[in-house]
Design a protein that fits this description.
Low-confidence stretches: 98-110
CATH class: Alpha Beta
Strand content: 5-15%
Number of strands: 4
Number of helices: 4
Radius of gyration: 17 Å
Shape: globular
CATH topology: Nucleotidyltransferase, domain 5
Largest sheet: 2 strands, antiparallel
Strand order of the largest sheet: 1-2
Structural class: mainly alpha
Amino acid sequence: MKFLDYVPNFIEIQDFYKKVYPDDKGSSGMKSICENILGKKLCKHEQVSNWENRPLRYSQEHYGALDAFILVVVAKHMEQAGVKRKVKVADASKTIGSEQNKLKVDNQLL
């Protein structure tokens, strides 16, 4: 089985945020979303560091793990807020790998 068979849909977190919080006209970047939803600042300093240098610094590893993990935390909070506002996660989900729009990476069909 291919990876995308396990992940048929994905959520664009910024689109979901705009649907759940339509009155927020500020930035919908992850840093702003974290601050608005969790009341915590997300440091994005390592995002622009040199990721080609090996070994990665601990701060880069930490940033990479946090950047992935925080999406789950934020999505859960937004899902709860969306229930109150009658916005469904499906409203922001997108399909990967449909017959009309197969995702290609390095000329390989996924």
